[in-house]
Structure formats: C-alpha cells, structure tokens
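Memo to structure team: turn this sequence into structure tokens by end of day. - J.P.
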Amino acid sequence: MTQRAEADWTAASFVRLARRERATRYLLLLPGLLLVALLLAPFLWLSVSSFFSEGELSLKNYQLMLDNPSYATILLTTFELSAVVTLVVTLLGYPTAYFIWLLPSRWAAIALGCVAIPFWTSLLVRTYAWLVVLQRRGLINTWLEAIGVIDHPLRLANSFLGTSIGMVHIMLPFFIFPLYASLRMIDTNLLRAASGLGAGAARSFFDVMLPLSLPGLLAGMLLTFVLCLGFYITPQLLGGGNVNTISMRIFQNVSTYPELGPASSLGVILLLAVVVVLLPMTWLASRRRGPRGG
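Reply from structure team:
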C-alpha cells in the first residue's frame, strides 16, 4: 500500500469514526429530547386552547381577563404572596444553611435530616396542622391569652398572614438544600485567608462568603418564588376564601365554564409570569459566574 493510499484509508477511517460518534451522541440525546417534547406538549395544547372560544378562534378568553378587574387583583395577590414568602424563607433559610455548613459532617447530616422531616408528611396534612395551630381557638391564640399577651384571639387563620406562615414552612427545605449544596463547594481556606489579612467575621462574610454562595442563594430564591406562584392547597385552606391566587381562579374557571379556554388563558398568563421572573434571574446568575474560561 502506497503512502497516499494509506493516508486516504486513514482519513476514511477517521470520517467513519466521527460519524459513528455523532450518531452515538444523537442516540444518547434522544431520551432527553423525548422528555422535553413531553413537557412541551401540554404547554402547546394549553396555549392553543386559550385562543378558542365556542369552537372558534378568538381572543375572548384574554378579553375576559382585561374586562374583569378581579383578575388583576388576583395576579397581584399571587405575586405579593410569593414575594413575601420568598423573602421570609430567605431570611430564615440562609442562617439555617450557614449554621449547618459550620457543623461537623456528622452533625450536619443529622441537621439536614431534620430539615427534610416535613417531606415525610403530606402537604395536605401539614396545611391542616397549621390550620389547627392558627385558628381562633388554636394553640397560638390559647397560649397568648393564657400568658396575658392578648385579650381576644388574633386573626391568624383565614388570612394572608396565615397563608404565608404555612407556605414558609413548606418552602424552607426547598431553599435550604440548594443553598447548602452551594455552601459545600466553598473552599474554607478563602475564609481563613481573609481572616489572616485582617478581615473581621462580618467583613469575611460579606466580601467572601456571600458572593461565593450567591448562585445557591439565587437558585433557592428562584425555586421558592416559582413554586409559590402555583400553590393551591395552602391558600385554599389557610386563606379561607380571603386569599385568592391564580391557581385557585384556574380551578374556579374549570368548574364554572363549559370550555377550558378561560382556564387555559390563565395558565398561559401564569407561565409567562414565570418566564418573566426566570429570565432576569438567569441573566443575573450568568453575570455572577462571569464568562467561560475567565
């Protein structure tokens, strides 16, 4: 075999190998692509349904929301509730995750197990438990009256406050776990170096710890906020009809209207609201990470 023929044979072998590797990559991607297709199919069906009214293509379902001011109020209440819960969860969850991060590995595992305990109980059971605790003759009002702090029961259940308390309890583990995972990736030598350079505890935290944990913090906040937008059971039970969210209105539309168009349009609005929240948060997280290879 001449050198030219050998070179041609080698080049052909490389081409066949490259094609085989490309085909293998496509086959490996196929399950993921099928999963994405399964996730997109309900959204596409929901979007198409929202533009049909009485069997005809129409914007009537969206016009219904524009003509009814209650939809704007419900949307505002949903975002306000999600924002309040996310803020409280952040204020409670960050110190908790930071404290667990400071513990030895054995005690940290026990602490994480305690954080995960709410997952062992149904969300419905936890919500009913808070309803018992927060009602007019519940544990909190009974104790406060017994020690003379209040003269009459506080309105905790069937209110925005009670709904927020129940949702904070449910969402805390969803915030703590991704934040703790981010904290575990931080090199403790950086904190020692900051301390060796004369930085105090507060300076080390704000200049080193907080910036490095920001990806986990943003992930936890984003996960909390997005999940709160779709809450139904907790506002339904703890709100007592005084707290109306988009998910509750979607259920009402499904029960009231003979077609799915009004409920589908609300679902599309909720999904667009989630996208509006995701885009700036994703952009902020990418800015914090910096360019690749930088």
